[in-house]
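Q: Can I see a sequence and its folded structure?
A: Here is a first one.
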Amino acid sequence: MLAERAFASGRVRAVGYAALGLLVLLGTQPNAVASGVVIGLTVVAAALPQWRHALGGRWGARFVRLPWFLLMVAAAVMASTRFIPTKMYVINSHVRATWALAGSQAATLFDGSWLESGSVVVLVLVGAVWLARDRNRRWLVVSLALFIAIFLLLYAVNGPVVRQLTWLWWNDHYRVRAALVLPAVLCATAGAVVIGGWVARRRPDPPRVRQGLIALAAVAVVAALGCGIPVHREVVEATYGEDSADYSWVLPREYAALSQLAAFVPSGSVVAANPYRGGMFFYVAGGTEVLYPTENSPQLPDRRLLGTSLQAVTSMPDVCAASRRQRVDYVLTGGDMHIWGVLDHTPEYSGVDSAAYDPDFKVVAEAGPYALRRVPDCSTAAPGSGFIGPVTIP
């Protein structure tokens, strides 16, 4: 839209859409912002000729050009390195693959048989060639090429300089590979249109035949997509299931233990579980409802209070009331602090972890490193002392 309506009659609409896009990006994960910036930069680069023509004048003709734009982007990237947290130079620095493996994964956009995945790749290539010939749509091909290049550099090289570019993705090649699918799907759609039009022109009723072929191609793409996007499966099976708590959200033995303990939680009950100890996978492993669905769940008042003070549920009326409102009948203790949780988030869930040292929290079942405990009845909670906050775990 920006490429076709730059500074023209659709200026107000373009600005409105751009503002809406910025608001959406501000509410998303940093890796989504980084992916959006990559695509946005390619759109802006494609719109430069229209902007140069619309602005006119000597300054517009001289400075609204691709080399100056690329220089500005490079300067912005260099300036951003001053704000990179130190830990971002280390996280996922251990992940590195051969160029052959990285290349094969970049080309394998979707799971399925060789025929299904190969058909999608053909559609992507045909669509990319067709789009590359259209100046207003060329940005799609450029964005696909950029994501492939970033993925290959991150997965096959993964050096300090590369991590200065990929830190908003947490230097996680899975996140970049997932973003790569976005322009690839659009290229595949364009490829279906091209092939459908080419076949339709050789039939007696081209418009109807073309519509039917496009619909058939769309069904084929959906069928291939139905087999799954490999990166989603691999994220669960590999990175988030490694044998070291330093680089994984949940260990294989912890995931197996969560599956076993889920059978002891009745329907309608909520479990307070430290997400940094693998607790957020309780729902994934066994369908158990948890108080903290992810490590980024909004810290609403009840969640924050229970996280820091659940161990005081029998003595603090406020904590008791919060546990009842949230239906917290069980607490999960044990497990290792994963990723950076031990550095940044120990106080947030100290009340949950402290339940392991309170005999009033009776053990219901144990499996692996975990213990599922029953939250004690707090109907006779005594008036609080006025202080509710983190406690020191012995």
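Q: Show me another, different protein.
A: A second, unrelated one:
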Amino acid sequence: MKWLILLMLAGCATKSVTQEVKVPVYAACVKDKLTRPVYETEKLKPESSDGEKVLALARDKPTHLKYEGQLEAVIAGCS
């Protein structure tokens, strides 16, 4: 019993070693939120003709490509 008490007291007498642990912390890489453009096809009525739908898709193409480029730039900045 005395040995057990001596061992416990000896453990308290030694200086404990400080350990530094590095843990990754999540930080958002996206600073500004991109606003989604309003596409012409979303404004179409269900009874619109096929020609109107095709023209709306053609008008949306440049807007879509610009928005896609912005999204790819944001994703590339995160990696």
